[in-house]
Fold this sequence. Notes:
Blueprint: E1 2-4, E2 11-13, H1 20-24, H2 27-36, E3 40-42, E4 47-50, H3 53-60, E5 66-67, H4 98-107, H5 110-133, E6 137-139, H6 140-157, H7 167-177, H8 183-188, H9 192-201, H10 213-223, H11 230-241, H12 244-258, H13 261-269, H14 271-286, E7 291-296, E8 300-302, E9 305-307, E10 312-316, H15 317-320, H16 355-372, E11 373-378, E12 383-385, E13 392-395, E14 397-402
Parallel strand pairs: 2-3, 4-10
Antiparallel strand pairs: 1-2, 3-4, 5-7, 6-14, 7-10, 8-9, 11-14, 12-13
This protein binds protoporphyrin IX containing FE (HEM).
Protoporphyrin IX containing FE binds next to helix 11, helix 12 and helix 16.
Amino acid sequence: MTTVVPNADVPTSHVDPFGPDTLGNPLPFQRELRDAGPVVYLDRYDVFAFGRYQEVHAALTDWQTFQSAAGVGLSNFRYEKPWRPPSLLLEADPPHHDAPRAVLSKVLGPRALTKLRAAWMDDARALVDDVLASGHEFDAVTALAEAFPLRVFPDAVGIPDNGRENLLPYGDHLFNAFGPSNSLVAKGAPRVAELSGWVNAHCARDVLSDSGFGAQIWAAADRGDITYEQAPLVVRSMLSAGVDTTVNGLASVLYALASHRAQWNRLRADPVALCRSAFDEAVRWESPVQTFFRTATRDIEVGGTLIPDGSKIVLFLGSANRDPRRWENPDEFDLRRDPSGHVGYGMGIHQCVGQHVARLESEALLSALVARVESIDVAGPVTRHPNNTLRSWESIPVRVTPK
Length: 403
Ligand code: HEM
């Protein structure tokens, strides 16, 4: 796949990483990318790509050189108007990033979540009981991976029941829009105004309940920690980044366990120790968020390649998480592994601020499943849902044997 660009020593790929074939199975392309070198030029999009762990990790932890404020998608905010007002966290750098980040870190931090723990465990048990009562073969994506976050997360934020299903197509479009303007973006376009209107309306103080994450963000504005103009955009960050990511993370761990009987048995033998790390291993193995972009703030040399100021760089998180230079047998889903250090949640100042929420959702769901179910197996062809950024699922038919 690689050729050498005249006058430059950088390997070049003509492959479209956002084309249907590569999105359907990105692993062969990612292997070629890593093998081609630390930096590969993608001529179709005029961007540099990092596929190896070392360079991806280094770029994520050097925000001064690899900025987010010019957009973490392909579009360069230096020259193009963003399709929506940029995120105050994801698409910002210090000093602007600091206050919204500090507020959200506290609202979504481990200490704050201890208050939700018992209720989410009960909710997960109730959901698993309902699913088992209606049959032992079901679609793990809709029945569990979508149903559980849509049940607990909007409640925790404080948004009403009505319309919460809008969060999934909104997130789907948002994550498509980080990629090129291809048919996936066009598919979402007709509903953008309606869905954005719904999401923005649900960031308003008077729509949110008095005690959820949303109300706590508005209370931070009362304290002066952020401004009243910033508060709705910080709420929007949760509604944008908090659902599709987790749904696909949960679907991934369910698929991983249903397709690896030995790992399921390992989990059953020691659920207290493994329910949390199983999710992290699935986030490494599948990397629900496959890519994010950065923009070079100066000329910089990486692995012998000069990357000019203003260039877009795409970081292949999913590829870094399967780099054999970093991981032993990276393609194996293995609960004996210590997956810490994976970049599935990013790294550095932008590392996922909602990861404790995702982990708690997974812990609750897996604990409930392990308590009720003897075995879980894939029961039919699994299908993917193509997305420019997410490694997303359409359907995972499973068969379970209840205890
Ligand atoms: C398995 C689930 C999740 C995955 C795989 C994931 C992945 C990521 C990644 C890779 C980043 C880093 C972006 C970058 O460096 O440019 C990130 C940031 C972020 N995530 Fe998550 N995320 C998940 C769940 C959540 C949840 C549940 C929430 C909200 C409740 C959330 C909110 C955010 C926000 C607001 C940021 C931006 C943080 C910043 O820039 O300071 N995420 N996430």
